[in-house]
């Protein structure tokens, strides 16, 4: 048996689709009720906040980074392995080869990268238009003009739209919330 079974490591648990948070809750309850706090330490559902812009309105929503997966920090013993595997909603461990074989833990750099992304939760933006799409300007001096998206800067939340003005194509920079798909 490899040395990593004697150390605290992170493992990836596969869940039924859409059950990630339920598995986290169930597993945390089982850890307490079965006295496994000294073997199973953390259960994480990696998520990020995404700003969705629809009809000119910003709406924040939480998006799972790895749908169908939960990360578990634990000592891999027969008992802890049993508790996690038999939690409702869990379909198995990733990196487990064959019936009865224990899984391989994640590499430390993988875990560090994921946990850092969660801690520094960068807000992503989901918009319902892209470069080349036709949009309608819904606010400001160019309200009701129709144009083509030629650039999107998610960092500054700006969109560059090419509109026909006085018989010429003109580039206009607007806030993402000032346009909608035409």
From TrEMBL:
SMART domains: KOW, NGN. One of its GO terms (cellular component) is cytosol. InterPro entries: KOW (IPR005824), NGN (IPR047050), NGN-like_dom (IPR006645), NGN_dom_sf (IPR036735), NusG-like (IPR043425), Rib_uL2_dom2 (IPR014722), Transcrpt_antiterm_NusG (IPR001062), Translation_prot_SH3-like_sf (IPR008991). Belongs to the NusG family. HAMAP family: NusG. GO terms for biological process: DNA-templated transcription elongation; DNA-templated transcription termination; regulation of DNA-templated transcription elongation; transcription antitermination. This is Transcription termination/antitermination protein NusG. Residues 128-155 form the KOW domain.
